[in-house]
Design brief:
Blueprint lengths: L7 H7 L1 H9 L3 E2 L4 E2 L14 E6 L1 H16 L3 E6 H7 L7 E7 L5 H12 L3 E6 L5 H5 L2 E4 L12 H22 L6 H19 L3 H8 L6 E5 L3 H16 L3 E5 L17 E4 L5 H13 L4 E5 L4 H5 L2 E4 L5 H22 L18
Parallel strand pairs: 3-4, 3-5, 5-6, 6-7, 8-9, 8-10, 10-11, 11-12
Antiparallel strand pairs: 1-2
Helix pairs in contact: 2-7, 2-8, 3-7, 3-10, 4-5, 7-13, 8-13, 9-13, 10-13
The structure holds fructose -6-phosphate (F6R).
Fructose -6-phosphate binds next to helix 3.
Length: about 350
């Protein structure tokens, strides 16, 4: 049941520290700090030169996050919408790994793309939450995210766990294919280990509820981010529209000035996600919106320069650039949740949506 919570979504948001701890448990070798994804003996990903990640919706945002983590680790990777794959699949060859990312493992679009990749001769792997799901059975390999059951239609904890597992997997693939772990692994693992407790701290604050109330009734809600902050901006907007029924859009920070700025008014709050990747540029992009009267809410660590510039801020604990966006995402989940609650929406079962989409 929902226990002390009014909705499964809120319960599942609060389960994230546990879900993440479960996801990483036993998957990092404490003796040498190496990533020991137990199902994949060392060398499993030897020769992988090229990764295609296929997914839909929130899982696509996790896939995009994973593709950027792979790129940053030096592996060629592209995230693709599974429902576009049948008409726009890039070629696969012997050194291509296709990763299907699906919480349920039952999404028809994703299964159909997975089957197409298999037929084209790719090695396949699925990242899923559901043991025994169709995607888990059909892919060559499976990485379970171990997030526990997710009842709310809006995916929350599974996004975080998928993104974290893809970040670890990116490091493993890079290590196997190059013979040594990427240099940034040393800073990532300690920060990953403290992420559950950092999330507990973040979840104990009520700043997101205050922000939701302050900007209630706005015309549109915009979310911007750069690098790993970009999938977070997309996810922030998807969650917001899905459960509040209000208009929201996510943009790459630098894209705002290439068109969307025409929509910006004092009635369109802009949430700016700072992940430590060229933050000064993102801040400038946010200021361009602010000049047009839009309130800017910075999602960033305390003491960040954006705090002085922005109208409001949502604090995230200090961490590695590779994880900052995931902490920011939890603040945005809370904003969406509280905004939907103020509007009295059926948060766990938004209209027209189903937990698992089994038609193409
Ligand atoms: C949004 C949401 C959907 C799913 C999408 C894929 O909150 O839950 O966008 O992410 O339908 O579902 P899975 O991950 O089960 O393949």
């Amino acid at each position: 049941g929902k226990g002390e919570y009014d909705h499964f979504m809120l319960k599942e948001i609060h389960e994230q520290p546990t879900a993440l701890a479960q996801a990483i448990e036993g998957r990092i070798d404490p003796t040498n700090g190496r990533i020991a994804l137990e199902d994949f003996p060392p060398g499993t990903f030897d020769g992988v030169e090229n990764v295609q990640l296929i997914a839909c919706g929130t899982s696509y945002h996790a896939a995009l996050y994973g593709s950027l983590a792979l790129n940053q680790a030096g592996i060629r990777a592209t995230a693709l919408l599974a429902n576009e794959y049948s008409v726009t699949a890039p070629p696969v060859d012997d050194d291509t790994l296709v990763i299907a990312v699906s919480q349920s493992g039952e999404t028809a679009d994703t299964l159909s793309a997975l089957r197409q990749a298999t037929a084209a001769g790719a090695d396949t792997l699925t990242v899923t939450n559901v043991v025994g799901s169709t995607a888990a059975r059909e892919a060559d390999e499976t990485l379970f995210i171990r997030a526990g059951p997710e009842i709310g239609v809006a995916a929350t904890k599974t996004f975080s766990s998928q993104a974290v597992m893809l970040t670890l997997l990116a490091q493993r693939i890079a290590a196997d294919s190059r013979g040594e772990p990427p240099a940034d692994l040393q800073s990532l693992l300690p920060d990953l280990a403290q992420m559950p407790s950092q999330l507990e701290d973040l979840l104990a604050t009520d700043d997101a509820a205050h922000i939701a109330r302050q900007y209630q009734g706005s015309q549109s809600y915009f979310f911007i981010g750069r690098g790993l902050g970009y999938p977070v901006a997309l996810e922030g907007a998807l969650k917001f529209k899905e459960i509040t029924y209000e208009h929201a859009e996510g943009f790459a920070s630098g894209e705002l000035k290439h068109g969307p700025l025409a929509l910006v008014t004092p009635d369109t709050p802009v949430f700016a996600v700072f992940t430590g990747e060229e933050d000064e540029k993102t801040l400038k992009n946010a200021e361009e919106a602010q000049t047009r009267g839009a309130p800017v809410i910075a999602v960033c660590p305390e003491g960040h320069r954006a705090v002085e510039v922005a109208d409001e801020h949502l604090e995230i604990p200090d961490t590695d650039d590779e994880l900052a966006g995931l902490l920011a995402n939890v603040q945005l989940q809370l904003v969406s949740y509280h905004a939907a609650e103020l509007l009295d929406r059926p948060i766990d079962k938004p209209r027209n949506l189903a937990k698992s989409v089994t038609v193409e």
